[in-house]
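Quarterly update, task 2.4: flavin-adenine dinucleotide-bound model.
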Amino acid sequence: MAGRFDMTAKVVSIREVAPETFLLTLHAPEIAEYAVPGQFVMIRPRQEAGFDPLLRRPFSIHRVHAQQEHIEILFRVVGRGTRLLAKVCRGSVLCVLGPLGKGFEVRPAKIPVLVGGGLGVAPLLFLADRLKGGKGVIILGALTKGFLLRLDAFSLTGLDVLVATEDGSFGNKGLVTEVLNRLLGRLEAESRRQIIVFSCGPIPMLRAVAGLSKSYQVECQVSLEAYMACGIGLCMGCAIRAGRQGYLHVCKDGPVFPANLIDWDQI
Ligand SMILES: Cc1cc2nc3c(=O)[nH]c(=O)nc-3n(C[C@H](O)[C@H](O)[C@H](O)COP(=O)(O)OP(=O)(O)OC[C@H]3O[C@@H](n4cnc5c(N)ncnc54)[C@H](O)[C@@H]3O)c2cc1C
Ligand code: FES
């Protein structure tokens, strides 16, 4: 039975993989079984009883290990909730709701190009795992080499990995969008039609990825973030402007959207 599960999940491990950035592994059998790439979970970021913070926080499902019934979350400390989450101990339990939202729609006939900037790589490793054994390209970007996330894990998927760092300390110097532009620009129109872009990262980066995809007439799906209170379509806290569609809810209509559905001037 697919659906969403409100469960307690045991912390299998937590480790710092980059400055202020943690990889959290949870034993969450139902979520591991039914999640698809691009979906997210809402986690109550404390292990003890109490109501502070009251709201759960949304996190992309970074990876699933189906046999072990584990899910991984890659998160950065930005405020109170994530600071508490970084302090959870192995063996403790967390309240987790998921899997939530709509994930990436993979098109088996097309060649995937995954574009992730900074922490935007979080939902893309699960997708890359599912694409293993096929053709495809992953473009990873970060400010500097020290902030590059999960390069080893992405390389193990067998897809071609290209890297861009803004200071040139690793891979191409510059932005992921420059690498994407060169990649798409080299292809004939016919080959471009076989490409599909999946992207996650900061809004200015996604806006640029959506713009490039549009100008090269390439299908593009983006994973968006918004402030979320409920994560299940009840509070209206995550509404975004979406062209002729009016408003969309990131939690239930997304977080993955066709890029051409988004009003990029308003977001
Ligand atoms: C669908 C979805 C998937 C996400 N996946 C991940 C993930 O995989 N890894 C990860 O680290 N983070 C992810 N986030 C963002 C994460 O939910 C926030 O960083 C977290 O809720 C912050 O909680 P906090 O209590 O630490 O920060 P707060 O104290 O609530 O806020 C601290 C700062 O972060 C900003 N902030 C908080 N929430 C958001 C948000 N949703 N969007 C933009 N800015 C925000 C606030 O404006 C403030 O400046 C995701 C968000 C969504 C909606
Ligand atoms: S977070 Fe409540 S409606 Fe989306």
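Highlight for this quarter: The helical segments are 29-34, 80-85, 124-131, 151-155, 176-185, 189-192, 203-215.
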